[in-house]
User: Fold Catechol 2,3-dioxygenase from Pseudoduganella namucuonensis.
Amino acid sequence: MKIGLAGIMVDNQDKARDFYTRVLGFTVKNDIPMGQFRWLTVISPEGADDIELVLEPIGFPPAHAYQTALYEAGIPATAFLTHDIAGEYASLKEKGVAFRGEPTPMGPIIGVLFEDTCGNLINLVQPG
Assistant:
């Protein structure tokens, strides 16, 4: 058994596609119309191409409440790994990404939260 799909709720799939590809540098793997929404997945050019991040539309009110509660509590929806957090932080900041602080050592990792423009906080992490 392995993980092939992981999902993140987004408040707007078009905005999410733009942010996750243009800003973060991910590549669209699937963008298939499914009624009023789409099956939209991205992959990382630095990762395995069989692990996809599903950009899930929020079409269910409790899901929106959950996403909002996480965001307001400062809890990340997911984490992305990097081997150069200082370089990644500088590059993303230059592209206009809103960070919640600066990379900070946290036990065995260095981490910093950023906003994905789609209602989520993402933890950018450099393992120790």
Observations:
- The first helix runs from residue 13 to 23.
